[in-house]
Design goal:
five-stranded mixed sheet, Beta-Lactamase, alpha+beta, 4 domains, HisK_dim/P_dom, His_kinase_dom, nucleotide-binding, 50% helix, kinase, transferase
Length: 401
């Protein structure tokens, strides 16, 4: 606005000086006429200078804070950091580097991977194809691990990069597929076996009543004892199959706010009702109140299954002990069950959660499978702790929610 007013004033000065200079000269005021001409010339020169300055400013290119190449680099880095999938790249010297925030968080590095997991290195061996897809398990925070689908692309050496890697977390998808397959399998087994066991139970009971009236007392006793044995075995098989059927029909958890300390205390009371005097239970409660959303009934069942398994294993020790502990660690609820039994053989550690698999004389392979399915239904994980981190205990199972 100031520039416009100044321009108008200069134009007005030029017009006024030109209009007054001639009559003033004709009237003999020569000095005044010369002064008016000088004013007109000054205003015109000032006006021309102002216009040239405005033109120069309009044509001048302001220097950019960030060069075009730098802006593109910053934009690409922001896009990579926004991607939730961990991205890596391999350089010509064979080193692996994190390309975005998700990868840096997963491998706890700001750039180069100092000790890449062997499973990851195996995917990018030189003899692998350019579009190789693989599924591997990588360690994560808290001592657990997760399954990732790895996609590898060749970089061709551009920018010193020979391979690109993208890791997609498929743990939840695999767990859901396993749970669905397990439910379908158990439903088929329970249906087929129950169709055979139901008439056996009914007929054996009827036969036991009829043969108990046989005139020959000795024969009647023998037949009655044989049929009673058949019935006991049939009842045992019936309970066995019903347990698997309950596993297959496990409903979705009804999540409600629950005090973690109260949950552990109630579970300990239920455990003592069966094992008091035979197995000592150590209860380690969280130092402060922690509320967690879960299905209290289902979680109590899962914890009792873990405690009962631990107690049975601890009976092999002269002073059997078991520990139930709960805490808030690394942003997650952790509930652990430890025992001082004989431990688990290295060959058996990978199979303890498989359904139908039991390493106890009278085990049915239901307890740990049911506990794991309950925990997974809550969006958590049930893992077998590493032997090196157990301290005075021989076996440890950890629930992370």
């Amino acid at each position: 606005m100031r520039v416009v007013l100044a321009t108008l004033a200069k134009v007005a000065g030029i017009v006024a000086a030109c209009c007054l200079a001639r009559p003033v000269w004709q009237n003999g005021f020569f000095a005044t006429a010369v002064l008016l001409v000088c004013v007109a010339v000054f205003c015109m020169a000032s006006l021309i200078a102002t216009q040239l300055e405005l033109l120069r400013r309009a044509q001048r290119k302001e220097p950019s804070v960030v060069r075009p190449v730098g802006r593109e680099t910053l934009r690409n880095r922001a896009l990579l950091d926004h991607a939730p999938v961990p991205l890596l790249f391999q350089q010509t010297d064979g080193t692996l580097h994190a390309a975005n925030r998700a990868a840096r968080r997963l491998f706890e590095t700001e750039g180069r991977l100092i000790a890449p997991p062997p499973a990851l290195l195996a995917v990018i061996e030189p003899d692998k194809s350019a579009s190789e897809h693989a599924v591997i398990r990588l360690p994560s925070s808290g001592g657990s691990s997760r399954v990732y689908a790895v996609s590898v692309g060749q970089g061709g050496g551009a920018g010193g990069i020979v391979a690109y890697l993208a890791l997609m977390d498929v743990e939840a998808s695999i767990n859901a597929a396993e749970a669905q397959a397990l439910r379908e399998l158990l439903q088929i087994l329970s249906h087929e076996i129950m169709n055979s066991l139901t008439p056996i139970v009914s007929l054996s009971a009827t036969a036991a009543e009829l043969f108990s009236e046989v005139p020959t007392r000795e024969t009647g006793l023998m037949i009655g004892e044989a049929l009673a044995t058949i019935r006991r075995r049939a009842d045992g098989l019936d309970r066995f199959v019903r347990g698997y059927r309950d596993l297959a029909r496990l409903p979705a958890p009804d999540l409600q706010p629950v005090d973690l300390g109260e949950l552990l205390r109630e579970t300990a009371r239920l455990f003592d009702a069966r094992w008091a005097g035979r197995v000592a239970l150590e209860l380690a409660l969280p130092p402060k109140r922690i509320m967690v959303r879960l299905d209290r009934g289902q979680m109590e069942q899962a914890l009792l299954n873990l405690l009962n398994n631990g107690a049975e294993a601890a009976l092999e020790h002269p002073a059997p002990r078991i520990q139930l502990a709960g805490a808030w660690i690394d942003g997650a609820i952790q509930i652990t069950v430890h025992d001082n039994g004989s431990g688990i053989d290295a060959a058996q550690r990978k199979r303890i959660f498989e359904p139908f698999v039991s390493f106890k004389a009278n085990g049915n392979g239901i307890g740990l499978s049911l506990a794991r399915q309950i925990v997974r239904g809550h969006g958590g994980a049930l893992i077998l702790e590493d032997e090196m981190a157990l301290g005075p205990w021989t076996t440890g199972l950890c629930i992370r929610l």
